[in-house]
Each structure stands twice: as structure tokens, then as C-alpha cells.
Amino acid sequence: MYSFVIILLTGVFLTLFFRPSMTEVVYGGSYGPLRGVRMSEAYASTLHLSFDVRGGLLMRQIHHWATVIFLGSIVVHLLRNFFTGAFRKPRELNWLIGIVLFMLVMVNGLFGYSLPDDLLSGTGLRILEGVLLSLPLVGSYAQMFLFGGEFPGELIVPRLYVIHILLIPGILLALIPLHAVVLTWRQTHTQFPGKGSSNTTVRGYPFFPVFVAKTGAFFLWVFGVTALLAAFFQINPVWLFGPYDPGAISSGSQPDWYMGWLEGSLRMMPAWEVTAFGHTLPLSVIIPAVVVPGVLFTGLAAYPFLERWATGDRAIHHLLDRPRDVPVRTGIGAAGIVFYGVLWLAGGNDVIAHRFSIPLFWTTWFFRVAFLLGPVLAYAIAYRFCLGLQQRDRALLEHGVETGVIRRSLDGGYSEVERPLTAAEAAPLTDERPPAAVPVARPERLGVPAPEARRRLARVRAALNRRFTADLGHGPNGNGDARRRELEAAAPDQEG
């Protein structure tokens, strides 16, 4: 949210000097290497803004860095909500709004760095045109609708400009307050389990003056870091790329990080094509640029409902899960991170090959294999980590915390002194809270399954449910209320 405010403020400044026109002019500004070169007004005005407007380059870079931070913040926020189960009832709508925000900001970032009409951004637009043309039946119509004619045409920059500064920001201005403020006020804040937290109470400080003071300080921190990055770390130096030329491409062209995973998806895909009914389907573009993003975003949007179906959990949750307590969800999240990360790394396979002096085909095949095996290994490893952390929690409950004090017995043996957990320390492990999953099928009787478990879909649901409930850290098979009562009876509160 803080980055979005910075983007809006710097964007207003940039609109005063940028000219969204593809009319050709001869550059006569202060940047010597391009003086006398024919280019679009969009590119010439970007050079003018960078070299001849006081503070213009700083504003451009603040705007770009704020966008990078904005998208990074969205990803971190999304991962936090996923791993802690914050998407569950009653917050499914808020989760869906967050996914829509993520997609809109990605698209707006792509359109934003395409506006200067330099060689790098033109390369990205060329890829976008190829993706549109690959769509069956409607591809050529979509391409003509967006570009207004054959690529590159003269309308794409003005159209992207309107979408970038008016259409998508207007939608964001409506969705961000709804996502961050209105729904939060209606649904209350989530909180981690611990002493004093419950599913029916909310702990925190008042909005005014505490939250207002904290959020003001956080905004200043974000603005300060963004300004430092813009002042000392160059980003998107369009003057080095030159004006866009449809017949040229710069070596080592790389998009911003949030579009790198789509670039990697395109680079990894084999050159497959299918011809049917007189039409050619370029699977080498459709699968990586349409199917893969569709699977990712559809999976993210549908996951809360799929998990509710598999777990049978329809309770209201205001308490978050610790990731270790729900190994299946944590494993799925780790697999998704590796899925995204492999695609992102593959977007720089040529740079990696050049930097480490290895054949390009080696890097391509490595990422193809990693794309298939990486998520599976990530799921298994994350699952085992969760089980290990649960075992450590049980050991702490049973034996206490190591103090580092060693005692020697009369017979010469050594033992370490352990102290019991205080009530506050044990609360995240033992306090009551709604389970993350409940059994959805009655057990078999005399080898005969229950009626609701005989259909094929019901058997799939029952199998997923058994997998999900097998190793819950807090629930049907985890640290339960009995252990909490034992602790309360055996040891007094040592919080003081």
C-alpha cells in the first residue's frame, strides 16, 4: 500500500513530461550518443525526462523501484496468507481480490515499462503480440484490437498509456481500500495462536493514535528505502538500449523480475506445433504463455475452496495456523515457490550460460528437468521439515527447554538441566483452536465403506482428507487439549 502511494505520486510527475506518441522525430537533446537519431516522441520525451528535467531521472527510478517493491510485497503478503491459512472462511473473497490485484499490477507493470518505446520494451511487446496471435480463433482479432493494425503500428503506446495511468490504476484504487480496510474492518484481523488469543477475541492497539503513528513511520521507511535505491542503483537505463527497431534485439534482454517467470516458461518449452482443420496451433507459445499462467492463477484462486472440500473444514477461522502444523499445505506452498522460481531462473538461461561458460542447451534441459522434479522434491522436503519441527515441539512440551546448565551426579554422570515451558511459551502449542481439517467420511465397518465414500469423487475426497489430516500438528492427531490440561495441572505459570 505504501509503495502504491509512491507510485501514484511519482506517476503524476512523470505524466507532466512524457508524450505517449509514436510520431517520429529527430532527437536533439543533451544525450550525445543518440543526437540526430530518428525515434518516436515517446522515447525522445523519456530521454528528455531523464537528462533535461530537474529530478526527472530520480523520479523515473523511484517510480520503477516502487513498482518492483510493490509486486514483491504482494507476493510476500500472498505467501504469508497461504502458509498461515488466512484465506479460510470468512476471508475467501479477500483472497480472490488479492489474486486479482496481483494480476492487475503485473499487467500494469508490463505496460508501464513498455511505454518508453526503447529496444528492450519493444522486445517485450513483440513477445506479447506473439502470445496474442497464438490464441486459437480469436488471436488475430485480439492482436488487431490492441495494436490497431500490423505490429508495431502507431497506436500501441497511446493505448497502453491510457490503460497504464487511467484504467488499471482506477480499478486498483477501488480494490486496494476494499481489500486492506473495508473487508478487514468487517472481518477483524487474524492473529497467531498464543496466550490470550482465541478464535473469538482480537488483540491489538487502537487505530488512533497507535496504528496511525506506526503506519506513518512505515510509509516513511518505505519511501526512504525506495529513494535510496533510486539514487544509487540504476534501473531501466533506456538510453543504453536505443529506440525500438523491429529487426533488432539486444543481447541478454531480461524483463523485470515479476515477468521473468513467463519469459522462462517460453524459453523452456520445446518447439511443438499441431496442425488441425487447416489451422496451426503453436503449442510452444500457447502452453507456456497461456496454459502455465492459467494453471497458476486459477490454482491460486480455487485453492481455498479445494482445501475446504478436501478437509471438510467449514468453520470460521480468526486464528492462523503455524505452517509446521499443516504439513500438506506447507508442502504445496513450497512446491509452488519452486515451480515459480525455476521458471524465473529459466528466464535468464542465456545470461547464466554466458556467465558460467556452459552450453545454452545444458541450462535449458536442466530447467526442464527441474521444472518437473523440483516441486515434487520441495513438497517432500518441506513435509519432512514440518514433521521434524512438530517433533521438536512435542519434545519441548514433554521435557522442557534446555538451559545450558550441566550437572554432575554422585556417580560421575552428567545431565543437562531443563526447565518446563511457561504457560505463555506453551500456549501456541496447546491452546484450543478450530482444527485445520476434520474427517469427512465415516470409517469402514466390517470391511464395508460408508455410503458417502463409494462414489469415485467421494473416494478421491476421502483420500485427500486422510492425507491432509494424517500429520496435523494441532488437531485430530496432533498436540491436543489433554496435553494442555496436563501442563496446567503439573506446573504453575512461570511467566514471571
UniProtKB/TrEMBL annotation:
Pfam families: Cytochrom_B_N_2. The keyword Methyltransferase does not apply. It catalyses: a quinol + 2 Fe(III)-[cytochrome c](out) = a quinone + 2 Fe(II)-[cytochrome c](out) + 2 H(+)(out). Keywords: Membrane, Transmembrane, Transmembrane helix. Residues 468-496 are annotated as: Disordered. It is an enzyme of class 7 (translocase). Its EC number is 7.1.1.8. It comes from Actinomadura parmotrematis. This is Cytochrome bc1 complex cytochrome b subunit. Its cofactor is heme.
